[in-house]
């Protein structure tokens, strides 16, 4: 059964600090790993998409890494802002079949 | 700008009633998906379509149906609503990967919060 596990489940950090979210996946078939940001009451919005041959991809203050050998990915957020408060969802799969993690709930405080 | 819209945003219905949730996209995407999101679960795939007249069951399809009569719309019907179908429903669309492309961007609607009482 395809699975995507994320840790931690929730995280509170001070504004301006960095943080790293983790994702372990067991997905087949697999061609890409995605990170989405989901604000409360909204649909997920794509942050990064990496193919199995890519190791890292950045989108502004968000940097995702992928180790296809160990089936692990991480999302690093630099210099966090209050607007980063959201759920971050790791997703693995193919162009048309995706398996979603349950997300990490991030709260950025003053 | 192209977009994907869901309606209604909120709905309360009674057990046993038939309910249809609308999804409309102007991306001209071939692929459309319906997911449900519940606490403690990642988004779970209900039904999906790769084009007009094509529909497929996802992992949690029991009690749901879809039809695809045009590119833009994929309505989701709950045949006889049950309390277990209380959830937030998301529609998404993506283009077909061509030319060896291993991924295509998926765009999500704002969600429909459905409560079955």
Give the arrangement of secondary structure elements.
The complex is a heterodimer of chains A (110) and B (117).
Chain A: E1 3-7, E2 10-14, E3 19-26, E4 32-38, E5 45-51, E6 56-59, E7 62-67, E8 72-77, E9 86-93, E10 98-100, E11 104-109
Parallel strand pairs in A: 2-11
Antiparallel strand pairs in A: 1-3, 3-8, 4-5, 4-9, 6-7, 7-8, 9-10, 9-11
Chain B: E1 4-7, E2 10-13, E3 19-25, E4 31-37, E5 44-51, E6 54-57, E7 64-66, E8 76-78, E9 87-94, E10 106-108, E11 112-116
Parallel strand pairs in B: 2-11
Antiparallel strand pairs in B: 1-3, 3-8, 4-5, 4-9, 5-6, 7-8, 9-10, 9-11
What does this structure look like?
The complex is a heterodimer of chains A (110) and B (117). Chain A is built from no helices and 11 strands. In chain A, the strands form 2 sheets. In chain A, strands 2, 4, 5, 9, 10 and 11 form a 6-stranded mixed beta sheet that branches. In chain A, strands 1-3-8-7-6 form a 5-stranded antiparallel beta sheet, with no helix packed on it. Chain A has strands at 3-7, 10-14, 19-26, 32-38, 45-51, 56-59, 62-67, 72-77, 86-93, 98-100, 104-109. With 110 residues, chain A is mainly beta. In chain A, 0% of the residues lie in helices and 59% in strands. Chain B has 117 residues and is mainly β. Chain B contains no helices and 11 strands. In chain B, strands 2, 4, 5, 6, 9, 10 and 11 form a 7-stranded mixed beta sheet that branches. A 4-stranded antiparallel beta sheet of chain B has the order 1-3-8-7, with no helix packed on it. In chain B, strand 5 and strand 6 form a beta hairpin. The termini of chain B are far apart. The mean pLDDT of chain B is 93. Classes of the chains: A mainly beta (110), B mainly beta (117).
């Amino acid at each position: 059964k395809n699975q995507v596990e994320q840790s931690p489940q929730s995280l509170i950090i001070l504004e301006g600090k960095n943080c790293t979210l983790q994702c372990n996946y067991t997905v087949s078939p697999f061609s890409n790993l995605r990170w989405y940001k989901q604000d409360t009451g909204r649909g997920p919005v794509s942050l990064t998409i990496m193919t199995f041959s890519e190791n890292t991809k950045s989108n502004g203050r968000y940097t995702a890494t992928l180790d296809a050998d160990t089936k692990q990915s991480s999302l690093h957020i630099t210099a966090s802002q209050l607007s980063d408060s959201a759920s971050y969802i790791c997703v693995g799969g193919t162009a048309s079949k995706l398996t979603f993690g349950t997300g990490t709930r991030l709260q950025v405080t003053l | 700008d192209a977009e994907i819209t869901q309606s209604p945003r909120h709905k309360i219905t009674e057990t046993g009633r038939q309910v249809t949730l609308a999804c409309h996209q102007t991306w001209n995407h071939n692929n459309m998906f319906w997911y449900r999101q519940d606490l403690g679960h990642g988004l779970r795939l209900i039904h999906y379509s790769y084009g007009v007249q094509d529909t497929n069951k996802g992992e949690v399809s029991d009690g749901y149906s879809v039809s695809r009569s045009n590119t833009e719309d994929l309505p989701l019907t709950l045949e006889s609503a049950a309390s277990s179908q209380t959830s937030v429903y998301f529609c998404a669309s993506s283009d077909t990967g061509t030319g060896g492309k291993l991924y295509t961007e998926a765009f999500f609607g704002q969600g429909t919060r459905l409560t079955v009482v």
